[in-house]
């Protein structure tokens, strides 16, 4: 974005795409069809030529063509931007990357935007640049359906280009890339190599161009990072110089007289933990318990975590979580051994023949609802590649060849408002998100048309969701040359020796690896290192029902208290019961009847189909849940160390404790997804892969802390329960 000297107000025709209650930017379009911010009364880019402006200011003055070409195989590069705007700078960088960088290198593009364009305005803006072709179309199709504040990770070119769009104030959004706000732990998983300081001019947008912005840029910059900006105001020059950059004033673009470029010459160094007292009195700094100690490089040449040199990992547990984690690491070049105690993948909680991609969204601004919204949108983008495949795939495991099985169907999910409480909740959700296309509010007649069957209730329709066969999905995820699947292998224990984990099997064999990820659901507590983590198994039973002439008309997944997908292999998999007290996996007739009754009450048109005589079988398994219903995703903490290091929290929750959370070296966990494994596991796998591979966080500091496995111990210590 840039500012031109002449005010554009007289040229503007108001756009009607953004109602007053929209969270998106209010965009106007001038007589030449160029976008302008109504709030800042400024163009999103130069009226002369926005693409030439981007090339001149940001591409050339960050020497990106030369730097991309000089990268080694599998090396990464990070661009940080303030002001995503129309996405023009991202598209220009992506195009250059594809032309100059090694084919297996990885570009991370991080952009923070307080006022994102609506879908309609983005599409209109991108139409002005036909030279970007398919890339512009991919950006438009991947753009978040709900532009909710927080992180949105979009993946392109099979993961070779990752866009992290942060919807937030620039200073607040960039702060989320730090490990902690504690001065001794202001490190980042991966520092920024080149900065595009964009955004509307300091005169029009002073809240962004404040001293804190330049401090955040300093803290997040890699050694010798470069920077470029159209802005040449004194506050910009002074802010950069005061925060480690050597700057040069250059000729500006178009009718702009000057611009600024620079390079970091004085890298940021966080304070040492020893500089802070350890005491029970109030501290102005947060306790850095969620910081992974291995990510702290005090005194090192770079404040970011160094990428691992030995990318070898053993993942224990081959359900949806394990398979997603294996795939996320394998595509980053890791050599993965995926260990499963059963004879095939997805044999336990992930083994139902039909799983539904859905999330229970809420109008409330709280962590659980925010995570559900983020995870659902990420998962929908993630599964596009699988839904685009043929309806059936020939699947194989290491030990046996299986018949053709359906991979799933993006048929949409209809969440019925089957009770006054459900209706009220859906109405609040619709009111909270008025301008979006993630879901549609439908009445009973519309629900009937969408589903293909008469519905007595309306509800919310999620057109981009659907169902998947978890077993086939896991096989597809693990079909990668970097993944070796080891079936019928039960791990008895694992121990740490000389920078390696020794994984011992009950058969007497053992293997070694510097990294281990536990994705064993409730079995996590079998291991000494993780036995204190709070997990709760909850039994669920699904019922297989023979399809008939009526049920074959069902065109979408029906959800309420239970779920009913369209028939696969001429049968429906409906469920599921919720029984935390039953520890048996034996099929129960009363649970079959409960499933039938629940769906019949919500969809009376299926009553004749949903009879006991139609049941052809079923399956029982245990969900793995946590006390707050959020998954455990991150480094495995050391229980005894937490009790000792954070003991002062029992006396004062604001004690001064300058200690990072002690974690087992190279050990991570990804469990506790409950009944939403298809929704939660893709983003959780990305979180862990980013932590292990020293990449920018895909979700930010606050959410990583909310998913951190040590959070329950910290809460219990603070409340005097441990």
Number of helices: 18
Oligomeric state, counting identical vs distinct chains: single chain
**Globular, elongated, flat, extended or rod-shaped: what is the shape?**
globular
CATH topology-level name of the domain at 48-264: Rossmann fold
CA radius of gyration is 26 Å
**CATH evolutionary superfamily of the domain at 48-264:** Vaccinia Virus protein VP39
Strand order of the largest sheet: 7-8-6-5-9-10-12-11
The helical percent reads 25-40%
Largest sheet: 8 strands, mixed
Measure the end-to-end span. 53 Å
**Share of residues in strands:** 15-25%
The residue-averaged pLDDT reads: 91
The CATH architecture of the domain at 48-264 can be given as: 3-Layer(aba) Sandwich
Uncertain spans: 1-22, 295-302, 391-403
CATH class of the domain at 48-264: Alpha Beta
SS class: alpha/beta
Count all strands and give the number: 34
Would you write up a description of this structure?
With 722 residues, the chain is an alpha/beta fold. The protein has a domain of 217 residues: Vaccinia Virus protein VP39 (Rossmann fold), CATH 3.40.50. It is built from 18 helices and 34 strands. The chain has an eight-stranded mixed sheet with strand order 7-8-6-5-9-10-12-11, sandwiched between helices. Strand 7 and strand 8 form a beta hairpin. The longest helix has 21 residues. It is globular.
């Amino acid at each position: 974005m840039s500012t031109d000297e002449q005010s554009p107000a007289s040229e503007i025709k108001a756009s009607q795409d953004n109602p007053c209650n929209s969270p998106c930017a209010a965009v106007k379009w001038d007589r030449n069809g160029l976008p302008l911010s109504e709030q800042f009364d400024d163009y999103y880019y130069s009226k002369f030529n926005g693409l030439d402006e981007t090339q001149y200011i940001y591409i050339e003055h960050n020497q990106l063509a030369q730097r991309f070409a000089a990268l080694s195989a599998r090396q990464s590069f990070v661009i940080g931007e303030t002001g995503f705007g129309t996405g023009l700078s991202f598209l220009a960088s992506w195009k250059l990357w594809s032309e100059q960088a090694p084919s297996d290198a990885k570009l991370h593009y991080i952009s923070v935007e307080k006022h994102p364009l609506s879908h309609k305005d983005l599409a209109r803006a991108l139409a002005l640049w036909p030279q970007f072709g398919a890339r512009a179309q991919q950006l438009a199709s991947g753009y978040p359906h709900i532009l909710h504040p927080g992180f949105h990770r979009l993946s392109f070119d099979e993961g070779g280009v990752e866009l992290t769009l942060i919807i937030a104030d620039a200073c607040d959004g960039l702060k989320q890339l730090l490990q902690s706000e504690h001065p001794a732990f202001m490190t980042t998983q991966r520092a920024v190599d080149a900065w595009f300081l964009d955004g509307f001019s300091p005169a029009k947008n002073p809240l962004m161009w404040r001293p804190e912005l330049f401090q955040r840029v300093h803290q997040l910059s890699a050694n010798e990072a470069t920077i470029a900006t159209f802005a040449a105001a004194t506050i910009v020059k002074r802010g950069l110089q005061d925060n480690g950059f050597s700057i040069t004033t250059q000729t500006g673009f178009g009718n702009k007289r000057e611009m600024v470029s620079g390079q970091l010459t004085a890298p940021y160094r966080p304070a040492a933990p020893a500089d802070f007292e350890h005491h029970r009195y109030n501290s102005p700094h947060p306790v850095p318990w969620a910081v992974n100690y291995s990510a702290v490089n005090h005194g090192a040449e770079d404040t970011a975590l160094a990428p691992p040199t030995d990318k070898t990992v053993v993942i224990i547990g081959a359900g949806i979580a394990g398979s997603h984690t294996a795939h996320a690491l394998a595509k980053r070049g890791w050599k993965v051994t995926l260990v499963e105690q059963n004879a095939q993948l997805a044999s336990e909680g992930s083994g139902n023949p039909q799983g539904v991609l859905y999330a229970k969204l809420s109008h409330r601004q709280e962590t659980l609802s925010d995570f559900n919204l983020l995870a659902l949108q990420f998962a929908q983008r993630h599964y596009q590649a699988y839904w685009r495949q043929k309806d059936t795939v020939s699947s194989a495991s290491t030990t046996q060849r299986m018949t053709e099985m359906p991979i799933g169907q993006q048929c949409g999910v209809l969440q019925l408002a089957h009770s006054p409480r459900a209706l009220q909740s859906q109405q609040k959700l619709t009111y909270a998100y008025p301008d979006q296309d993630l879901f549609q509010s439908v009445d009973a007649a519309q629900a009937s048309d969408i589903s293909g069957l008469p519905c007595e209730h309306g509800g919310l329709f999620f057109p981009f969701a659907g169902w998947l066969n978890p077993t086939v999905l896991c096989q597809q995820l693990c079909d990668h040359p970097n993944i070796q699947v080891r079936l019928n292998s039960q791990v008895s224990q694992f121990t740490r020796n000389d920078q390696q984990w020794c994984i011992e099997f009950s058969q007497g064999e053992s293997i070694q690896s510097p990294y281990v990820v536990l994705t064993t659901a409730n079995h996590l507590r079998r291991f000494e290192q993780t036995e204190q983590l709070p997990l709760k198994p909850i039994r669920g039973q699904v019922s297989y029902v023979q399809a008939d002439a009526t049920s074959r008309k069902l065109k979408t997944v029906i959800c309420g208290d239970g779920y009913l997908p369209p028939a696969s292999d001429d049968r429906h998999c409906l469920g599921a019961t919720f029984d935390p007290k039953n520890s048996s996996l034996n099929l129960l007739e009363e649970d079959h009847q409960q499933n039938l009754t629940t769906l019949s009450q919500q969809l009376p048109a299926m009553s004749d189909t949903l009879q006991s005589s139609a049941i052809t079988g079923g399956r029982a398994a245990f969900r793995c849940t946590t006390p707050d219903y959020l998954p455990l995703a991150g480094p495995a903490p050391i229980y005894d160390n937490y009790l000792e290091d954070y003991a002062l929290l029992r006396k004062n929750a604001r004690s001064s404790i300058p200690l990072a959370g002690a974690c087992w070296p190279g050990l991570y966990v990804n469990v506790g997804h409950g009944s939403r494994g298809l929704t939660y596991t893709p983003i959780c796998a990305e979180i862990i892969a980013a932590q292990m591979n020293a990449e920018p966080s895909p979700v930010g500091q606050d959410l990583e802390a909310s998913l951190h496995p040590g959070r329950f111990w910290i809460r219990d210590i603070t409340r005097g329960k441990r």
